[in-house]
Amino acid sequence: MSLRFYIWGLVISMLLALAIWIFVIFNIDPYESGFPGQVFFFASFFLFLMGVFVNILVWLRIKFLGGEVAVENMGLSFRQGTLLAILVVVLIGLNMMGYLIWWVGLLVVAGIFLVELFFLSR
Question: Do residues 58 and 82 lie in contact, with contact meaning Cβ atoms separated by under 8 Å?
């Protein structure tokens, strides 16, 4: 598949996730609807963030490494974008529950970093 096909697929999926997240923000109150509302909010926010981070990482790889290498490293961009989205959602969730303090945030960042190092070392 061509690089243009990948980029359009990423952009369209990111915009769809953004539309779903905006729908959830305006139509579902996470505190009144309880746990299901919070799950919808965080899941749609995660999908949107993942799309944003993957698009940014693919764009950076295209700009600095070229299009051919960017297609070869699409899985790497997808994994790193997913891990960054997990990091942000976990930090926001911990903040919402009142558990986020600086050393807990550092532990979460270190955990995500160790997961990425595990995948890079394989």
Answer: no
**44 residue type, one letter:** S
- Using CA atoms, how far apart are residues 103 and 105, in angstroms rounded to an integer? 5
Query: Which two structure tokens, joined as six digits, stand for 87?
Result: 């990091």
Q: What is the pLDDT of residues 98-121, one digit of tens each?
A: 999 999 999 999 999 999 999 999
Q: Is 87 left (phi over 0), alpha (psi -120 to 50) or beta?
A: alpha
Integer CA distances (angstroms), 31 to 20, 99, 100, in order: 18, 18, 19
Residue 2 has pLDDT above 80, yes or no: no
> Model-level pTM?
0.91
Contact 78, 61 (CB under 8 A): no
